[in-house]
Design a protein that fits this description.
By secondary structure, the protein is of the alpha+beta class. The chain has helices spanning 32-35, 46-58, 155-171, 212-231, 277-286, 291-302, 306-312, 316-327, 332-346, 352-363, 369-382, 386-393, 401-414, 416-423, 430-440, 446-457, and strands spanning 2-5, 66-67, 70-73, 83-86, 93-100, 103-114, 118-124, 129-135, 142-148, 184-187, 189-190, 204-206, 239-244, 249-255, 265-266, 273-274. 41% of the residues lie in helices and 18% in strands. The longest helix is centred in the middle third of the chain and has 20 residues, at 212-231. It is elongated, with a radius of gyration of 30 Å. Bound molecules: zinc ion (ZN). The site of zinc ion has 8 residues, from helix 1.
Amino acid sequence: MEVHVQPRTRSKMFCGCAIGELGDAPNTHVCEVCLGLPGVLPVPNKAAVEACLKTALALACEIPRHTKFDRKNYMYPDLPKGYQISQYDLPMSVNGRLDVSGRTVRIRRVHLEEDTGKLIHAGDRLHKAWESYVDLNRAGVPLMEIVSEPDLRSADEARDYAVELRTLLRTIGASEAEMEKGQMRAEPNISIRREGSTELGVKTELKNINSFRALHRAIIFEVERQKQMLESGGTIVQETRGWSEAEQRTFSQRSKELAEDYRYFPEPDIPPLELDRTWIEDLRRALPELPGPRRGRLVAEHGLPPSDMAVIGADRELADLFEGAVAAGAPAKQVANWIVGEVAPTGKLPSAQNLAELVKLVGDRSITRDQAREVLAESVESGRTPAEIVAEHGHRQVSDEGELRIVAAAVIDANPKAVADYRSGKKQVINVLIRDMTNRMPQANRQVAGEVLTELLD
Ligand SMILES: [Zn+2]
């Protein structure tokens, strides 16, 4: 699996152009360097090198003393220079690993390169009149390429690997890794083989997959296509294939180039980098707790089930929120329920202190779950504490049994028919009585009201 990730930087890989946003006007973030005009000098972006080194360290890679950039030569309209600056035989790092759902995936290398521009095709299908435009805003945007060894065995594992990688990148702050913004793209290489065979079959490479769902589906499709091809006596051609989201199938793009075809040679305008050991050790020490070990610790400390862990352990901010709220005194299981059920789906995070307070208000029955949902939304919006919001709205629940018993007695007096029905066995009539109670006292806790009524009626 090859994964391209855009490291978090303000400027491009070899010039001072801003990264810009998706949807910016075309060719507004360009200069002589990223346009590839003659006579300019590229200068490596330190922040990109640092993000790449952090990623390599988090993936337990070896970092050599020297690394260099190389030119990968090919001609394409989105690459006016006629070459891409990448890394060939001395990458930034090699020989790492990432543990994913019980399997160790070996990482072959993590290196740094630059993105190309983008072609926009427009035209009139009816008259077969086509026009293509070039937008070079992305040309020269830094990319890390993370290449694994062939250790993934299924579409599920490939998706889990990509998800885990995204969690890791976000945790260490190396990238936002937003697939929908093109900050992370997966290129699975897929081959099949007979059961028991140790030799990998001929592979095809799927280009530029930009969602986890597409990654999963494309691999399932491609495995099935290769299987049918071999079973019908055909052969697999080594090639690059695309994924059509509309048709949900892969299609041939071009026969695979070999490394020789690119005529790699050292980039003459950038001297090899000597990677300072002190810098690397500083980066290693500054890494936060990584997602895998953190999940293990959270399970051990709080006994959370795997379903909760799958959500909370996949996002550093959610894990921080969980630990913060528990540290503020709220029970772990309830905090996990609120994060998994209410916070994660909205993506809007309260402070740990406020979440803890909310969980406690529900726990001691001061407010109902429904009220708590509203309070949570309001607290996230305004930043005010749940206690303040509850006090202002006056929807603190009445859970005091003495107070509720007085109302319950009045309700029983006022509803002789319902009471008779209840006593003759129609237990569901209790809901009519509870409704009358909440009409008389809107802030009554429904559960306690039910308990008090039952107690009086039985
Ligand atoms: Zn530029």
